[in-house]
Write a structure and sequence with these properties.
The protein has 482 residues and is an alpha+beta fold. It is built from 20 helices and 20 strands.
Length: 482
């Protein structure tokens, strides 16, 4: 066969593409020859490499890691899954309703009503026999006493204080109206990988491995570029690699120490198939075998749940918030996470379009959905939800799409943000009622002509101060939740 380089736009379904190690796939297709590992995290959010061999589907955006693959194209250019994700994101952003902020709704008719009131007051006093001077002074007093300072401060002051409270809790705002929308959320959808779980891999059975063996495995892992091997090295605290180690692409790494061969990698590479078959393994874990001569060991590498995930889920349930998991990950891993966290509703193997369909279904039922996700494949769902959050470790596109971003390893900022938002919305409404109540009491007094412009100015300032003091209560919005 002859190899030639062509633009992506010139590739058609049925063509065969050569995918070398280190190259990112530009088409959707199926592997027809070769064996390798591919990184599909850009598409699925799954950080573990996937074994690619004959018959394995490959998507645009996937990175080929170790071996050369021949891929028969099923879709190219604008027909790929990656292009579909981009279209879904664009559609979701365009379809997002223009949420009218509370202050905007309250002030839409304020100015015309106030000016009309002042004009009627002037004309009324003139008709009643007052001089134009006295009538105009009374009208000016009405305008001053109804100055919308309190109304104008009612919302922004609460937003400012609440934003500071959220920042101290580890939450950053991307959207000006996120606080109001978050306060309305009554259903939370979590992605699993990187959201409910930590983004970093760890060795879950490290305590079961003898210290000397674990140290050797970690040192040997330093000679591999595989992320699972990197997790083993980090967990073992390895600093110096074993001299002379050789990595065999797609299989593992081997070396000799004091005449004894060490191997780390696939069970078949280490001769540990029987040990793996007989082991009670975590369905979420990737299995790494290690051999030292005839001694065989199995390391279980996985993304652990965030340390406070169970407490956060319990806290959300206490607030009568519905919870479910929508993940593109395999079913056993999703089931294990849902069972550990006590989440009854979950779906595995879902696509970006499936996530949007579920969100739209919940919207039709009247639910206000908070979507929490981190992968590029979550971006359309983040845009489609009523409000959305991403961890700081999320893909850049997801961070930019989300309304809020939370920092650190804990999941607690999600609950803290909801509490802060609900308290803030309550205070916003209180401030609006304070401003309205002040006007209901003050305007008749001003119209009656017993208030001078100076007294009106003092009353107006007093109402503004009252609103600002009430807004400061948002500083205590976040309570101990986990």
């Amino acid at each position: 066969d002859e190899i030639s380089q062509v633009p992506v736009a010139a590739i058609h379904p049925g063509d065969i593409v050569l995918l070398r190690p280190g190259e990112r796939c530009a088409v959707d297709g199926t592997v027809i020859e070769g064996r390798s590992e591919i990184d599909q995290s850009l598409i699925t959010g799954e950080t573990l490499y996937v074994t690619a061999e004959q018959g394995t589907p490959v998507y645009a955006g996937s990175m080929n890691i170790s071996g050369t693959l021949r891929v028969r194209v099923s879709a190219a250019s604008e027909a790929t899954l990656l292009a579909e994700i981009a279209r879904l994101l664009d559609n979701a952003l365009q379809a997002r309703s223009r949420y009218m902020r509370l202050a905007d709704r309250a002030s839409r008719l304020y100015a015309p009503v106030v000016h009309a009131t002042a004009l009627v007051t002037i004309l009324g006093w003139v008709i009643a026999g007052a001089s134009w001077h006295d009538a105009v002074v009374t009208g000016v007093a009405v305008l001053i006493i109804t100055c919308p300072c309190a109304l104008g401060l009612a919302i922004p002051t609460v937003q400012t204080v609440a934003s500071g409270t959220m920042f101290r809790a580890g939450v950053l705002l991307n959207s000006g109206d996120a606080i109001e929308r978050l306060a309305e959320a009554d259903h939370v959808i979590f992605d699993k990988t990187g959201t409910l779980t930590l983004p970093d891999l760890d060795v879950s059975n490290a305590a079961d491995i003898p210290g000397e063996i674990f140290e050797l495995a970690g040192r040997l892992a330093l000679s591999s570029h595989h992320p699972v091997a990197a997790a083993v090295a980090q967990a073992a605290g390895a600093r110096s690699p074993i001299v002379g180690a050789v990595e065999e692409a797609g299989r593992g790494v081997r070396a000799a120490v004091d005449g004894v061969e060490l191997r780390l990698g696939r069970a078949s590479f280490c001769g540990a198939e029987a040990l793996v078959i007989g082991a009670d393994l975590d369905p979420e874990a990737s299995v790494v075998a290690f051999s030292k001569g005839d001694a065989k060991f199995v390391l279980s590498v996985r993304q652990g749940l965030r340390p406070d995930a169970q407490a956060v889920i319990a806290a959300l349930k206490d607030r009568n918030i519905g919870i479910e998991i929508l993940s593109g990950d395999r079913e056993p891993a999703v089931v294990a996470a849902a069972h550990s966290l006590g989440i009854a509703e979950w779906r595995a193997g879902v696509t970006p379009a499936d996530k949007i369909a579920r969100i739209e279904e919940l919207k039709r039922r009247g639910a206000k959905v908070l979507m929490v996700g981190d992968g590029m494949n979550d971006a359309p769902a983040l845009a489609a939800a009523h409000v959305s959050m991403s961890p700081i470790s999320a893909a850049h596109l997801s961070q930019a799409t989300a309304d809020l971003v939370f920092l650190g390893r804990p999941l607690a900022p999600v609950v803290a943000a909801i509490d802060s938002a609900r308290k803030a919305l309550h205070l916003m409404r209180q401030n609006l009622w304070l401003a309205i109540g002040y006007n209901v009491l003050a305007v008749p007094v001003a119209i009656s002509g017993v208030v001078t412009p100076l007294i009106a100015a003092a009353a107006m300032s007093g109402s503004s101060i009252l609103v600002m003091l009430n807004s400061l209560r948002a500083r205590s919005a976040s309570r101990e939740t986990v």
